[in-house]
Model the fold of this input.
Amino acid sequence: MKKFKLKHWINYMILLALAVPFSVIAFTGTVKGSTSLMLTQIAYSIVLAVSLNLVVGFLGELSLGHAGFMCAGAYIGCFTANYLHTVIPDPTVVLILSMVVGGLAAALFGFIIGLPTLRLKGDYLAIVTLAFGEIIRTVFMNQEIFGGALGLTTKKYGKTLFVIAFVMAIFTVFVTQNLMKSKHGRAIQAIRDNEIAARAMGVNVTYYKLAVFVIAAFFAGIAGVIYGHNTTPVDYGFFSFNYSVEILVMVVLGGMGNITGSVLSAILLTFINIQLTTKLSGDLAALKYLIYALILIVAVIWNNAPALRKVRARFGLQRLIEIIVHKFKGHRLKEEGGMEAPSTADWSKVPTKIPMDALLSTDIVPEQSVKEEGDKK
Amino acid sequence: MNTLINGLCLGGIYALIALGYTMVYGIAKMLNFAHGDIIMVGAYAVYTTLALTGHTVPAVIVAVIVCTLLGVLTERVAYRPLRGASPLAVLITAIGVSYLLQSVSQLIFGAGTIPVSIGNWGTLELMGISISISSLLTLGLCVVIMVGLSLFITRTKAGTAMLAVSEDRAAASLMGINVNGIITLTFAIGSALAACASVFYLMQIPAVSPTLGAMPGIKAFTAAVIGGIGSIPGAMVGGILLGVIEKVCSSIPVLAPYTTAIEFGLLILILMVRPTGLMGKTRREKV
Done:
């Protein structure tokens, strides 16, 4: 019999815990309009964060154009929905169909962007995705057919949109999680950890990079369609670089390459975000970005600074969880050291370059060996 | 003709900003995403000093000092702890710093656009076309600064040390070069250039807002990548190219709404053909 593993099910449990009670309320009684808006927003934030995590956390490439894919999905999907409403009477069917269309449209854009990225890496890739995101946005903004600068008006779905949105969030988590457990997922993570080694082991790097981009864009497109029906008219200003960074903040806060983390931080940040934007007005709204900025800086330095490695192993969240779990199971704790999760990979470094640079640089004590022992396991 | 001169002028500003990006990339091997926002801080420094004293010269001096200190400070606090960490981590931190600067200045000065009048010296009639003197001044000073920077890097000891660090950090530290010091110096010079750029920017578009630096920052970054990031002449060429294209595009009505898209499209095109940018191969000149 297969053993029940908490970590395989926790994501679904979180999502259901959030979605089911409200769905019951929504179908039996009344749910407040603002609550339903917030739940929808949380759901599509989860879709976005999990799909961006696929690129940033698992493939190890930085994409700054996620909002651009979302934009493509939103415009094309909502345009399709507006048309389909005249043909198909059932609004739920229309929504699902338009999600498929929006997702595929975004995936097509992902494919187009993926093609040149095959030659680029790291910083160059980041700037190209940023550029593409802006291009997509500008192009859609200037199409009269999509409403031009006024935006595209969509049909309102009322208070039950969040149920469909949560179904999509669960679907996204399901696909991502199972993809990462499969042989394809291992190949993708191998590319992140060392592209050359992965290539040498027979992993088709080009194929997988492109696939990850297309899948992530597909989900971003779906999120775009949900957004488009939650907030009408579809506003091109929303899909700016700032929103891409917002999604990135969610991924970074949750932990790169950690799906549960992405889900939790998407919920938390969206909640905080809505609270802040409704409570603060005018210039104080900048506080939101101040908080984002601090989260980014502190989280990244805490997780990556070479000098903090010892402190982290001692007091980090991972260690804390491990202590609790082991207490719970009555096991004895492992000795520390090697606690370091195989974190973000050094993808820009060719193996032959690592030792010289890292060992001789004035800031780094040669701790490389400690980390490698941890990774071996 | 006027468009061309405006383009060259804007290109000069982009080139100055791009120099900051490219120097930091060459030496610290990181993208300083917050560079554009240092320009914004410089612009606010100019605005504040102008409001207090009413003279241009102290405003420029204060802007340069503030930006230099800020550049050094961000390097110290945000980037130095991550030396040796993955480039992705550093890039994300830099985005964080950029947001930090934007939101702090919005909290201090408000989100609105504040008009700043700096250097309106009228126009000059030359061979039948009128050129504003501030444009000429911008163009001239940009050239002077670029030449000065090239001389600094090739002729002085500190400049050679920078070249050495960018070539091989480990070997440079074995030769007794203070690598951390050189990186700090690079940030200081880059930020001082950003301060100059902010002054010129205000001459062209006389208004400050917290998001002032974002777009020129991204554009200049694009320029640096087009020219081949890490290469100083590349940054100049890329900056001027981008500035001219932007002005020419926005002067043609059909293309005007797509100006940004065209600029980024050019970036993608060039990266597809030459993944290291136009002058990326000429590694000898990189800093």
Summary: Residues 33-59 of chain A form the longest helix (27 residues).
